[in-house]
Specification:
One of its GO terms (biological process) is translation. By secondary structure, the protein is mostly helical. It is 83% helix and 0% strand.
Length: 93
């Protein structure tokens, strides 16, 4: 691991940033996975399973907001869109 920084504090900041970047990527990936699972469930699963996966996706989004990975308005927009998708599929039928 080669650090370009000169000062001790700058080297430490680089290490901290790398650690946080890895954590943020993991959280963001978990959010994307939860959303994809929900969207797949809309196509093939019954309403109860899709509703549970919607809850999990919303929970993942809320956790990401709590950790500071995504902005609260972004999460709110995504939750709204997922809920609208759910309602359009299951309320119409």
């Amino acid at each position: 691991m080669r650090l370009v920084a000169n000062t001790k504090s700058a080297k430490k900041r680089i290490l901290i940033i790398r650690k946080r970047t890895m954590r943020n990527k993991a959280i963001r990936s978990a959010v994307k996975t939860a959303i994809k699972k929900f969207e797949m469930a809309l196509k093939v699963k019954p309403a109860e399973e899709a509703r549970e996966l919607l809850r999990q996706a919303v929970r993942a989004l809320d956790k990401a907001v709590t950790k500071g990975v995504i902005h609260k308005n972004t999460a709110s927009r995504k939750k709204s869109r997922l809920t609208r998708k759910f309602n359009s599929v299951y309320k119409a039928s």
